[in-house]
Structure formats: structure tokens, C-alpha cells
Amino acid sequence: MVDIVPFRGLLFNQEKIGSLDQVIAPPYDVISPEQQDALYKKNPYNVVRLILEKQYPEDDEKENRYTRSSVTFNKWIEDEVLVQDKNHGFYVYSQEYTFEGESVCRVGFFARVRTEDFSAGNICPHEFTLAKAKQDRMNLLKECRANFSPIFGLFSDPLGDVDAILYEAMKDDSFTVIEENGIINKAWRLNDTKKLARITEYFNDKKILIADGHHRYETALKYCKENRSKVDDSAHVMMFLTNLDAQSLAVYPIHRLIKSPAPFDEADFMNQVENYFSVGPISEGIEKNKIRKALDSADAGDIVFYVYFGQGRGCFIKIKEKTNMLPLLATDESEELMVLDVAQLHTIILKNILNIDTKEPNSQKYVTYKVDMIEALGRVDSGEFDLAFFMNATRVNDVRNLAEKGIRLPQKATFFYPKLLSGLVINKFES
After folding, report:
1. Which CATH architecture does the domain made up of 254-392 adopt?
2. Of 33, 54, 189, 235, which has the fewest Cβ atoms less than 10 A away?
């Protein structure tokens, strides 16, 4: 059973700040330093001052980015820059965008979801997490006692029962329309008690698959366990929930940039790769479009990568036998992972050939994850990285099937598009 409840969201007061498009921001973990600076300059009330405060050399335990976020947050509440809704409800949220030439509208809603251990089987992760990222979010949660950014959750609704209620709410005027990077974001309040009850009841026998926000969920769960006696509201965390069966999910691949722990020897590396992969010829003058075309041309079910060595040099590789990775798996890893491109890459190439075990904190510094292919090419060309692996997106059905069985994927296995905006709705603990 998944316990979801309506809540009194904390929203920006548009009479104080003007248009909401001035104060929202992307999720904290995709904001570059340059973008952080731009958001600071954009508006003095931009939510970046809460989710990703600037860090200074003189920071200490009493004065730091987290304590400054807390001071700012409480000041905005005091000044009614942020105001709490009078009524409990869900918040319907739509994102209209174009993906691979097709117009898509993803619809879901914000709710508070009771946290529970993954072992209960109701809330299912699909990725491993990084300790550093969790500590960062824990520090912010302790100081502010609020969720500024929603966790992205998926649920199964093949008949569209919940979607029908959400679309009914969307007939009313939205309280905001924000166009950001070609994506039209709209939000509505849903306060009808009967409709809220129907949605809540629907989740009594459902599971939630975490699409994005694993670090925030695990942080929220830990915070609840440590503070439930003092902070009643800590039992729930804010989530955005959308229908897995609505055919409106876009998933991008996340490419890997590698800095070898040992001096990189291309010839030796390729000799080892040939034990597991069919290797195409090294090509010169490779560009983004050629790589994308090569990957797209792969047959369904094939596991293929494009290896890039820099200066336009690279080659196409294809797994010979999926089962060849099985002897290389750790004892706590499932054989069912062999269907995943990302699992084959991390097990055979990163761990076995390059000696980079991404489950180990000390090894994580050798891998950087990028969605932007052009940026990835440039950073290998510059010599910052030794090579890059370009890959196809992980299939949603594979994520779903493995997650429901309690099988986790390597970190950064998926990139669900578009990202959710931060700042539309805030969940503040009331106790």
C-alpha cells in the first residue's frame, strides 16, 4: 500500500514577486555554476537561493550555504513572499514539449507520499545513489525542514482512471504558465474532496517507481527515522506522480566520460574489449550526428556503444553474448541485469577492464555523466578525459520490470525528460 495525502503547499506570492517564471529553477543537480550565477541575477527571490545557495571559502559549521538557505526561507515566509494555501489538495502539473519531432504533454500531480523502506516493496528504486549527494541534501533538509524540489515518481494506470481526474481539473484556469527552454509548464490546484479521496484510494494497492530523486528520497527516509518524534510531518515527502502507461515519458541516454585510473593505453584497452565485443573499424572525423545514427541503427535488443577517443576518432562496438558478463557480476548482483546496456558497460568495461567500480566511492571520481553529446565530445577532445562511451537510452519497461523485483541499476542509468521545475510548490513541515 502506498500512502499519499493532500497538503497545503507553500507557493510564491505573485503579488510580491511578479511572474513565476522569474523565480523557478531547474533541479539543483543539473544547475551549472554559470547557470547558478544567472539565476541569482535573474531575481532576488529565485528559488536557487534555497535549493543551491552559493558556497564561500570562509564557511563554517555555523555560517554556510545551508544556514543561509534557512535564513532566506524563513525571511520569505515572514515577508509573505511565500504563502501557504488555506486548503489541502493535490497540485496538477503538465509539461508540453516536443520529443524526437512529436508533441507530447506529460501530466501528473504533486502529493505528499509516506516514506518507507524499499524492502516493503511499495516504493521501488531503480538506481544506486552517491553518499556525497545524500549528505548535501540532508544538510539542507535539517536546516529548512521543507521539500523544495519534488521527487519524480511513476505509477501504473493503464485505464487512465487517475488521469481522467487530472484532465478534468485542467479544464479550469491554471495558476501559472511558464515557458522554459521550449517546455510549457502549467499548474492547477485540485481541492475537491471527493476527487482527492478517489485518487488516494487508487494508490492503496499500487507501487511507485522512483524515476528521479533517489538521493532526496533516501535522505527524506533517513531524516524521518531520526526526527519522527519531533517533526510529525517528516513522515511524508513531496513527489510528482505521473502515469507510467500514458506513453508520454521520454528517456534520454546518459553518456559516460572516463578518466582512467592508470595511464590509458588505447591498444591494450581495445585488445581487451575484443574479448567481449564485436569491434568496428576506428573512424576519423566522427561527429554527433554520425554517432547518433550509428546507435539508432542497432537492432532491437542489441547492446551497442560508441567509443570515442578524441579528435574525431572512435568506433562502434556490439556485445557478442550478453551472458559473458555473468561471471563478472558481484555476488549481490542479479543475472537479470544482463539485458541492460548500462549494466554491461559498467560490469565489463568500467569494472573489469578499466578497474573502475562505480559502486565504490573512491572510483566515482573517474566517471563523469553527461546527457549533452556535444559537450562530452569536447571534453574528450580537450584531454580532460581519456575516452567517452555513447549509448542508447535505457528502456522504460526494463527499468520497471527490474525495479519491481528489487533490482537496482547502476547510478545515472536513466534521464527522464523533461526535468521538473523547482519552486512551483514547496512542502513545508508544519510541526
Report:
1. 2-Layer Sandwich (3.30)
2. 33
Query: What would the grid cell of residue 70 be?
Result: 534557512
Which pTM was predicted? 0.84
Q: Using DSSP bridges, classify how beta strands 415-417 and 277-279 pair: parallel, antiparallel or unpaired.
A: unpaired
Sign, CA dihedral 261-262-264-267, equals negative
Confidence of residue 400 (pLDDT cuts 50, 70, 90): confident
Q: Which residues face 160 on adjacent strands?
A: none
Q: How far apart are CA 279 and CA 273, in angstroms?
A: 8
Q: Which sign, positive or negative, has the C-alpha torsion 139, 140, 141, 143?
A: positive
How far is the C-alpha of 13 from the C-alpha of 20, rounded, in Å? 9
d(CA 308, CA 100): 24
What pLDDT is stored for residue 100 in this prediction?
Answer: 66
Q: Which helix (H) or strand (E) holds 12?
A: strand 10-12
- Residue boundaries of the structural domains of the chain: 4-250+417-428, 254-392
pLDDT at 366: 96
